Amino acid sequence: MDDISSDRDERECDFFARHGGQSTRPPRKVRSAAGEQGWSEAYANDGYVLRCDWSQFGSREEMKYTEIAPRDEIPSTR
Hints:
Blueprint: H1 8-18, E1 28-31, E2 37-43, E3 49-57, E4 60-68
């Protein structure tokens, strides 16, 4: 399945437009040995990450996009 969705390019363009463009850090992809699940991450200039988690079990396919804030913007739990 991988993280190919019909709106992937549109999601990434919107994400980069809101977060200062694409980082020079290369995107990452990981998939299980059986190819049933995996994730990919795209990195923005301001430190945000667009993560896509995907899985496929039989005919069921799921995909979830998440924007992850830079670590220094996560509120402290202290």
